[in-house]
Amino acid sequence: MALCKICEKEQSKYKCPKCRAPYCSLVCFKKHKGKACFDFYRLVPVRKEITPIGAPDEEDPSRLTPQDLEKLAYSKEIHKLLEHPEIREIIRQIDCSKTPVVDLDFMRSNDPVFDDFTKKLVEITFKEKLDAVQKKGT
């Protein structure tokens, strides 16, 4: 059983119907729903098909692991930034774009809030990996 992602003290008994976050009680659910919950399904309504660029057993440090995705899903900082409708719209546009890398770079250089969002994503998902690589190098 998972730990409650809201109080981080009790074992979860339930999952949020919107974002699937585990919670332990009605009190925690109300806290979650009031601040941290967002609907993953409304975040990006039209998704393009994702095709792998290589074999799954290739080691690619830029690929997000299930643990990385879980860190993002439960990050209060990410949830707070996703409260901005502009950020959600930019994500939708980049996700549907034929040139996502170009559009991502453009939006980062023109929107400081979105740039902060992308930096926070990298910090949450790659900080441990970068630290490990730096320790190997020394």
UniProtKB/TrEMBL annotation:
InterPro entries: BCD1, Tscrpt_reg_GCM, Znf_HIT. Residues 4-37 form the HIT-type domain. Keywords: Metal-binding, Zinc, Zinc-finger. Residues 1-74 form the GCM domain. SUPFAM superfamilies: HIT/MYND zinc finger-like (SSF144232). One of its GO terms (molecular function) is DNA binding. Signal peptide: none annotated. PANTHER family: BOX C_D SNORNA PROTEIN 1-RELATED (PTHR13483), ZINC FINGER HIT DOMAIN-CONTAINING PROTEIN 3 (PTHR13483:SF11). This is Zinc finger HIT domain-containing protein 3.
